[in-house]
Amino acid sequence: NIQGKLPSSLGNCHNLSSMNLTMNQLSGTLPPEFGNLTELGAVYLSHNHLEGPLPSELGNCHNLLKLDLSFNSLNGSIPASLSSLKSLTLLDLRENRFTGGIPSFLSELQSLRELQLGGNLLGGPIPPSISLLENLMYSLNLSDNGLTGQLPSDLWRLNELQKLDVSTNNLTGTLAPLNGMPSLVEVNVSHNHFSGPIPPRLLELLNNSLTSFLGNSGLCINCALSDGYICANSKYIRTCDAGSTLQKGRLHGIQIAFIILGSSVFAVLASLCLYYVLATPRRRDKTDIEVSGKEGSR
């Protein structure tokens, strides 16, 4: 294993076209002299102990096709200078400590085929501009970032995307934007706050496996549109009609309670009225008798 820091003298290797130092014991920061390596086509530095922010000089590597810095301890925001990497097809920044949100300028990287940002501290919403990356093909990973808000309504424009992972965030809303993504073969939306029916196409796509939807208490399966087997054997996600039936049952129970209460009140009032009607003549008779007795004594 190679240990120590990356030397700034690397910037003198002007003809260097590829760097693969994956799974070593490299530490320290990325030297700004990286920006001098304008012939670099690929950088693989994953699974090391690199830290600190990304140098903005990386944006000078205009020929860069693949940049993999995953599984390190890099931090700070993703520098805007990366928008200059127009030829980039892979950007892998997974499992670091990046903050500052998902930058909207990523939509300028129109050559991207794979974008891996999972396992950071980015926070904030998914920018609508992410839907402009229409050449994304292999994977879009935004998992475990503390993201909020809803899925962009134009996400369907990523019609070549095969894998989508937005699990372990704080996302809300429905899964409707995923309906029009014909190339999807893997989806993970688990452990969020999504609600509403799961699109039947997603269930078919995942062979009726529900693990990709777990941890979303508001999600349900529409049995009228889905496979009867999954409705009968769903242990983890409720059926939409079960929810409505439960609601109807509650409403029906409330109606019955009001009817019983109303009937009881009516019965009490009727009893009081009947008692009053029956008791009044007796009082009159008693009064008449008392009056007659008094007159007779006179």
TrEMBL record:
Compartment list: Membrane
Protein's membrane topology: Single-pass type I membrane protein
Statement: the UniProt record of this protein carries the keyword Isomerase: no
Keyword Protein transport appears in the UniProt entry: no
SUPFAM superfamilies recorded: L domain-like (SSF52058)
Top-level enzyme category: lyase
Residues spanning the membrane: 256-278
Organism: Opuntia streptacantha
Major site of localization recorded for this protein: membrane
GO cellular component assignments: membrane
A GO molecular-function descriptor: guanylate cyclase activity
Superkingdom of source: Eukaryota
Alphabetic keyword roster: Glycoprotein, Leucine-rich repeat, Lyase, Membrane, Receptor, Repeat, Signal, Transmembrane, Transmembrane helix
EC id: 4.6.1.2
Name of the protein described by the UniProt record: Guanylate cyclase
